[in-house]
Design goal:
Blueprint (H helix, E strand, L loop, with lengths): L2 H18 L9 E7 L9 H15 L4 E10 L2 E11 L13 E13 L2 E9 L1 H7 L9
Parallel strand pairs: 1-5
Antiparallel strand pairs: 2-3, 3-4, 4-5
């Protein structure tokens, strides 16, 4: 297996671990000092921060899971496109639980070092999620 194939496999395993809510599985996939370039407010650094993000999102969407659509690789970088789905059962971005289902596209770029996830860039369609949750978005006063 080439290193690119191995990195693609590790990326998919990270997505599977988040989908299962399995924080312990992330210990063997994420570098302890990994850098999350798009952290949520007040997110701790490193692997613990990534786990905190997972816990936070799963508290809003307990059935949060993803389907990997595309994974591309070159050198020590992987680009992934996933679709996250879940039912809002807890507060999310200031919105009370709604029991509504959302489907959110996300894109990731991940850098690997020593067969571990070392850096993570991610962007998700949060505006689309808010729209699906029937949130009213008003301009600033």
């Amino acid at each position: 297996m080439t290193s690119v194939e191995r990195h693609k496999e590790i990326y998919c395993r990270v997505i599977e671990a988040v989908s299962a809510g399995d924080a312990s599985a992330l210990d063997e996939l994420l570098h302890p000092d990994m850098v999350d370039h798009n952290p949520m407010p007040n997110q701790p650094a490193g692997r613990d921060g990534f786990k905190a993000w997972m816990t936070a999102v799963r508290s809003s969407f307990p059935d949060f899971s993803a389907v990997v659509q595309t994974v591309l690789g070159q050198g020590d970088l992987i680009a992934g496109h996933v679709i996250w789905r879940g039912t809002q059962r807890g507060p999310f971005l200031g919105l009370p639980p709604s029991d509504r289902q959302v489907s959110v596209k996300a894109f990731h770029v991940v850098r690997f070092s020593d067969e571990l996830t070392a850096e993570w860039w991610g962007t998700a369609d949060l505006l689309g999620a808010l729209h699906q949750l029937d949130a009213r978005i008003l301009p600033p006063p």
